[in-house]
């Protein structure tokens, strides 16, 4: 399958929000549109769109430059905040192509590593990350305390 990868544009906002909703359904499409509006103006955030040659969307990935990320040695560090591929097109190289494009861009910007995470029980995501060249660095359980 031929795959085109490019950075997201404001004109992609609706389809981007719909794909984000499929990955993170705790927010509505409208709330994702608000997030996207803020992200488009943020130099620390970059998002990529995977398309077929006929411009049908296949998936997306988002990177944020964080000051710190568990398991990384450099600061600041690019962090893969999310990646989603249409289920009909998974295991066909779309994710790998997205990660390769992001990697090339990050190397060009002078970065030496990228970090990501996945839920501790999300074995499908663990396998995908390993297939994309990521290595597990540590397992963490996060805690919180409500302050009232």
Automatic annotation (TrEMBL):
Enzyme class: transferase
InterPro entries found in the cross-reference section: Acyl_CoA_acyltransferase, Aminoglycoside_N6-AcTrfrase, GNAT_dom
Pfam family, one: Acetyltransf_1
Keyword tRNA-binding found: no
Gene3D superfamilies: 3.40.630.30
Keyword field contains Transport: no
EC number(s) from the headed UniProt entry: 2.3.1.82
Catalysis: reaction(s): kanamycin B + acetyl-CoA = N(6')-acetylkanamycin B + CoA + H(+)
Protein keywords: Acyltransferase, Antibiotic resistance, Transferase
Domain N-acetyltransferase: 3-148
Cited function: Catalyzes the transfer of an acetyl group from acetyl-CoA to the 6'-amino group of aminoglycoside molecules conferring resistance to antibiotics containing the purpurosamine ring.
Subunit structure, as described in the record: Homodimer.
Protein name: Aminoglycoside N(6')-acetyltransferase type 1
Annotated source species: Rhizobium lentis
């Amino acid at each position: 399958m031929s795959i085109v990868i490019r950075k997201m544009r404001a004109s992609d906002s609706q389809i981007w929000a719909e794909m984000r909703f499929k990955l993170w359904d705790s927010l509505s499409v409208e709330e994702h549109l608000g997030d996207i509006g803020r992200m488009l103006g943020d130099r620390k955030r970059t998002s990529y769109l995977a398309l077929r040659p006929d411009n049908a969307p296949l998936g997306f990935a988002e990177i944020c430059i964080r000051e710190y990320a568990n398991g990384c040695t450099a600061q600041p560090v690019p962090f893969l905040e999310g990646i989603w591929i249409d289920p009909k097109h998974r295991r066909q190289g779309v994710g790998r192509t997205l990660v390769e494009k992001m990697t090339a861009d990050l190397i060009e910007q002078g970065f030496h590593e990228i970090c990501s995470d996945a839920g501790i029980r999300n074995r499908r995501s663990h396998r995908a990350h390993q297939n994309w060249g990521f290595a597990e660095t540590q397992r963490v359980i996060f805690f919180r305390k409500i302050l009232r």
